[in-house]
Amino acid sequence: MKKLAQVLAMAAVSMVGLASNGALAAATECNAAISGSVSGGVVVNAGDFCLLQGANVSGGVKVNNGGVLITCGSTINGGLVADGAANLLIGAGADEELPPVFFFCPGNVIHGGVEISDTGPGVLSPAPSIALERNTISGAVHLMGNKGLIVISANIISGGLFCTNNASAPDDEGTPSIITGAIHCNFAP
User: Fold this and answer.
1) How do residues 108-133 score in pLDDT, each as one tens digit?
2) pTM (2 decimals)?
């Protein structure tokens, strides 16, 4: 018991030391529009609707069960992870900029990978539950067990594209992405 107390005390001292050095920055919870610099990452929780527009995020983005994320013209350092999100629109295609939609959402730069699982079927109809459009992604993209429509178009993905057990095959809307690395996805005809 005495050894356990010593270990816990040493761990607490270590955590205080890390926190004072800035190594443990708290993530910013997003439930509105965010632009500008954000350090420590961004988290989108259940019921939150987050718009990253012109943001520069250090520490990555995490979307939890039931969160909605729209990201336009932003830079994400640390990748993007979504597990059970309601909707993810990461950039938008040129087709959305025209009537009747008039939605201008430039692509993003994501330094790191993208992992999206159990997302959908979507709450922003008629948008797909997952859209990755016009982004530059420096890591691999993994799509696993997603329930709604998926659009992957006009991206530059350095690290491969992997699809497993999704309800639908991704659609490239006639504008395929440039993908460096393995491709383990079959696109919708």
Assistant:
1) 999 999 999 999 999 988 889 999 99
2) 0.84
Q: How far, in Å, are 40, 87, 158 from residue 62 at the CA level?
A: 11, 13, 20
Torsions phi, psi for 87 (to 5 deg): -155, 145
Sequence-distant (≥ 6) Cβ neighbours of residue 7 within 8 angstroms: none
Terminal-to-terminal C-alpha distance of the chain: 63
3-state secondary structure 127-176: CCCEEEECCEECCCEEEECCCCCEEEECCEEECCEEEECCCCCCECCCCC
What residue spans define the domains of the chain? 26-184
- If you compute the radius of gyration of the chain from its CA atoms, what whole number of angstroms results? 18
CB neighbourhood size of 159 (10 A): 18
Distance CA 75, CA 171 (A): 24
Asked if residues 45 and 78 have their Cβ atoms less than 8 Å apart, the reply is: no
Degrees to nearest 5, angle at CA 69 with 63 and 70: 150
